[in-house]
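Deliverable D5.2: sample structural annotation.
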Amino acid sequence: GLLGGAQESWGMYQMQMDSNALELQTMFQISSLLPFSLTGQEAIITVFPLHVEADLDTSLRIIAPLGFEWQFSQQDFAYRSNSTTSVSALVVRGVTADLPGGIPTKASNVLTWPIASYVASERYGFSTRIRVPDHSPTRSSNAFFVEFGYTDRTWGMQNRST
């Protein structure tokens, strides 16, 4: 079967997600790029900051390069700010609010969150485990994609992508 939305054409977005301000550009930090087959361990990936230009209610999808696999349980998916929990293992340094939608649904290299409320003044992020493949993809893009509003069905209503 096809992954959610995989059977549909590319949509147009209102704006690009990357900001001109370096401190607002989404970074993907991976603890080790050694493949899982060599180490037997998943790498830790931190995605920060995730932000929106205006307050909005929308969905979120993050796609890792083909071959990467998200590997986590509810207990080891950190997405909270230190103002909402005292459990340090759940806190992502620098976030100002919990990631709306909480823990995502995972399917191989794709994470999806349901429609949730995002606030422009907040900075979101998460940290979790991911399996690194033996080889970089050659038949697809070797990049991570972040899409706010990927479920919107009206022309031009998708909010942001990078």
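Annotation notes: The chain has one helix and ten strands. The first helix runs from residue 36 to 39.
The annotation will be released with the project's public dataset once the embargo ends.
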